[in-house]
Structure formats: C-alpha cells, structure tokens
Amino acid sequence: ELKVEQNPLFLSMQEGKNYTIYCNYSTTSDRLYWYRQDPGKSLESLFVLLSNGAVKQEGRLMASLDTKARLSTLHITAAVHDLSATYFCAVAIKETSGSRLTFGEGTQLTVNP
Amino acid sequence: DSGVTQTPKHLITATGQRVTLRCSPRSGDLSVYWYQQSLDQGLQFLIQYYNGEERAKGNILERFSAQQFPDLHSELNLSSLELGDSALYFCASGRLKTGLNEQFFGPGTRLTVL
Q: Sign of dihedral through CA atoms B82, B85, B86, B89?
C-alpha cells in the first residue's frame, strides 16, 4: 500500500524566512503533485513533477523531485503572509484504468508578520 | 476557478438519511474522481469514473455509491448516514491521455450529519 508522509505537519515561520516541506512516499511513482488549500476551500494545483531531478518554481515556491530517494521538497523563499495555507503533496501511481492520488497529511503553514 | 462545479455547497442532514452530491467536470474531461476530506482520515480517494465506467475504487464504504452519466456529470450517493460521514467531499476531473494527468478539484460539498 502506498504511503505518503509529509513533515513537518505544522510550520510557523516569520515573514522573510526560508523553509522546506518534505514529502516522502513508499513506492515507485511516476507523478508527484503539490496542492495548496486555504481553510474551507478547494485544492489548488501548484506543481506537477514528472521525472527524477525535476524542479519547478513559481514565485516564492520551488518544488523538486528525487525519485530514487522517493522524496519531494517544497521550498519557500522569503515567506510572506499570503503563503499561509495547508500544503499537500500527492502521489499518483498510474494504473491501467486510471490514476488515483494518495495524499500526504498536509503541512499547515502559518506565516507571521 | 478550476472549472469543476459541485452542488450543493453545504448539506446538513440527520443520521440514517440518504443524500446525493453532484459534480460536473471541466469541459473535455472524461475522468471524474471523488475524494473525502475529514479531520481524522485526511484526504482519501473514494472512486473514479472514466467516460461512464467505473475505473478505480478506493476506501469507499458499501453505503456509498457513485455513477457517471452520459453527459459526464457524476453523482455520489451516500446512504444510511452516520455521524462519521461528516466531511468535505471533493470531486476532481482530468484527462487521462495527457502526460501530466493533472486532476482539477471542485469547490467541494460540506456534509454535516447530525
């Protein structure tokens, strides 16, 4: 059974600081996703990582994937308050008939002024 | 706005009742996924349909069922509701044929069972 673990689960940081969220998964996967969720809202797609060594950046967020280590990271640079949200990684294992997502527990990020 | 619509936004009902949640996928998407988000279980995959056919099943209870109609909208039926079924139910849609196989999530239906 595929397991996806994130850490930390809770992260409180000051504006302007850098930090990294880690996502480990237990079996080989061909796709990894990062989503953002604001309280009571839907999931917003941030990144899709397809291959070993993939790196994608959008604004103050950068995601990377190491398929050999089964590890993805989401790096936050110079955090601002607007980044406060819960961040989920999700792993997909392509099956012949579809591609379900298995989610991590989520990292609740709070950026303090 | 992802382009996925879900109705209703909120649903309050009593134990033992039955409810139906509705989802309309993005234009052009043939695949619909249902997920449940609760405090104790996190985000869990329930079931997937592709062009009207069931394609994958996750941790979906026997009291729950789903279907996808010819116009590609999907419904999730929850029956004999229990307090523990209170959760946020998301529908997502996607196109299997693209390499990214990205899933786009709807706004969710918040179900409260009293």
A: negative
Pairing of strands A43-49, A101-103: unpaired
pLDDT digits (tens, 9 = 90+) for B46-65: 999 999 999 989 989 999 99
Phi, psi (5° rounding) for residue A48? Answer: -125, 125
Identify the weakest region by mean pLDDT among A11-20, A24-33, B18-27, B38-47: A24-33
| Angle at CA of residue B28, ends A39 and A48, nearest 5° | 50
Hey, which residues does A76 pair with through a beta bridge?
A: A19, A61
Q: What token pair was written down for A111?
A: 């950026």
CB-based contact, B55 to chain A, within 8 Å: yes
Q: Which residues of A62-85 are buried (b: 16+ CB within 10 A; e: fewer)?
A: bbbbebeebebbbebbebeeebbb
**CA–CA distance from A92 to each of A89, A99, A100, A104, B77 (Å)?**
10, 6, 6, 12, 25
Q: Which pair of tokens denotes residue A49?
A: 């990582």
pLDDT of residue A63: 97
pLDDT digits (tens, 9 = 90+) for A35-73: 999 998 999 999 999 888 889 999 999 999 999 999 999
Contacts of B48 in chain A (CB under 8 A): 97-98, 100
Q: Is B67 on the interface with A (CB under 8 A)?
A: no
Residues of A with CB under 8 A from a CB of B: 31, 33, 35, 40-45, 48, 50, 88, 90, 92, 94-95, 97-103, 105-106
